[in-house]
């Protein structure tokens, strides 16, 4: 056979393989799954040949990306010092969101985040990865790294900022690596289910997994420093009428290991968190509200530290334009050595406007008034958030 004929056949085979790979890996554009409790959606998996020793379907991977760029101008009034300003641009996270169906009742979800810090270094975090088995509407179970079942925000809005109404997450539900007070990630089992009674629905969700590490930034992904597992339980009642109303309580229990590197943290901490949330959504209005009360008790000294936090955000929907406003407060106990110095009490009032340029890109304009210990600040923030 001539060399030219062989080359043409090789090109045809390579082209066919590339087209097949593209068909499998590049999905139609759709909104990503909103949370752990929702079943990932995608088109039916494609048939494969029986010669591979598999079933008559194969997994089909859906990949989406989220990113954002933010411009910030802050003007600070520092007690006893005077005024100063902070103006800067910031690259947000590059969030790769992957979903796949392995079978009718088995699904996989992963969220990988690339984030640059102030030292111009790029960190890669595996924020979520789990496999989920759905028995019925009344029971599902998954294993891996999840968003903890706290309220509505933590599971509805992941790292893709396009999906959330505001520029940033409320302070009390910030991620650990941003200085968060809640254990918003859980490594272990998650389970839940729901039942419906006419226009009412009742849902439960729970996490059982590794507890927190010695500091508030630590998520123990490969081991646990003590045998006490962290347990979280959330109960939800929902009502469907002109809009959808969701509300319910949540509780969390954990034992936090000591941190001998920090003087005063030689003892183990008992962590108890109680909270409640209420969310309402219809075609023209959205209300998001959550409250948390965090208590740490030092088992060595008996000292107790209480840190309540809450937020209330309202959004009006005029189609592409969505004005919003809210109040965000965190009264963290500054004597609690479990939290680092970057976590301070905050009172924040905010108003903003979200402009959806299209389904995949939004501009957000937000004004904030922040009160922290010794500092009053006014800030104006502009953000473009998008998916691809």
Describe the structure.
The protein is mainly β and 388 residues long. It has one domain: Porin (Beta Barrel), CATH 2.40.160.10. It is built from 2 helices and 17 strands. The protein has helices at 3-25, 153-156; strands at 60-78, 82-91, 94-103, 106-116, 122-136, 139-147, 185-197, 200-209, 230-240, 244-256, 269-281, 285-298, 304-316, 321-330, 346-358, 361-372, 375-387. The chain has a 16-stranded antiparallel β-barrel with strand order 1-3-4-5-6-7-8-9-10-11-12-13-14-15-16-17. A hairpin with a 2-residue loop joins strand 5 (122-136) and strand 6 (139-147). The longest helix has 23 residues, at 3-25. The radius of gyration is 23 Å and the shape is globular. The two termini are 46 Å apart.
Short description:
The chain has 388 residues and is mostly beta strands. It contains 2 helices and 17 strands. The protein has a single domain, classed as Porin, CATH 2.40.160.10.
């Amino acid at each position: 056979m001539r060399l030219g004929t062989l080359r043409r056949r090789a090109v045809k085979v390579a082209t066919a393989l590339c087209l097949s790979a593209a068909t499998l890996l590049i999905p139609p554009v759709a909104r990503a799954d909103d949370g752990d409790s929702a079943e990932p959606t995608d088109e039916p998996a494609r048939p494969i040949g029986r010669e591979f020793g598999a079933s008559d379907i194969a997994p089909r991977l859906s990949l989406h990306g989220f990113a954002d760029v933010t411009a910030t101008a802050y003007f600070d009034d520092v007690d006893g010092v005077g005024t100063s300003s902070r103006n800067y641009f910031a690259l947000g996270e590059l969030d790769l969101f992957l979903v796949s169906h392995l079978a009718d009742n088995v699904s996989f979800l992963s969220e990988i985040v690339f984030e640059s810090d102030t030292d111009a270094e790029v960190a890669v975090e595996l924020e979520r990865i789990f496999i989920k088995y759905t028995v019925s509407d009344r029971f599902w179970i998954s294993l891996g790294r999840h968003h903890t079942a706290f309220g509505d925000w933590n599971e509805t809005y992941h790292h893709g900022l396009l999906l959330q109404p505001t520029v940033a997450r409320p302070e009390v539900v910030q991620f650990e690596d941003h200085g968060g007070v809640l254990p918003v990630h859980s490594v272990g089992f998650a389970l839940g289910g729901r039942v419906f009674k006419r226009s009412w629905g009742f849902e439960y969700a729970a996490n059982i997994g590794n507890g927190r590490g010695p500091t508030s930034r630590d998520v123990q992904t490969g081991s646990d420093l003590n045998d006490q597992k962290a347990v979280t339980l959330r109960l939800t009642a929902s009502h469907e009428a002109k809009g959808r109303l969701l509300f319910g309580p949540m509780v969390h229990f954990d034992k936090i290991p000591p941190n001998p590197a920090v003087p005063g943290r030689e003892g183990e901490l008992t962590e108890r968190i109680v909270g409640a949330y209420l969310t309402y959504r219809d075609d023209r209005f959205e209300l998001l509200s959550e409250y948390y009360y965090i208590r740490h008790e030092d088992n060595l000294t008996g000292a107790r530290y209480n840190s309540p936090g809450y937020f209330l955000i309202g959004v009006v929907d005029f189609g592409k334009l969505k004005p919003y406003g809210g109040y965000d407060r965190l009264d963290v106990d500054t004597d609690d050595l479990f939290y680092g110095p970057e976590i301070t009490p905050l009172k924040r009032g905010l108003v903003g406007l979200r402009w959806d340029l299209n389904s995949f890109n939004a501009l957000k304009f937000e004004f904030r008034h922040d009160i922290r210990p010794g500092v009053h600040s006014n800030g104006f923030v502009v953000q473009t958030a998008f998916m691809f």
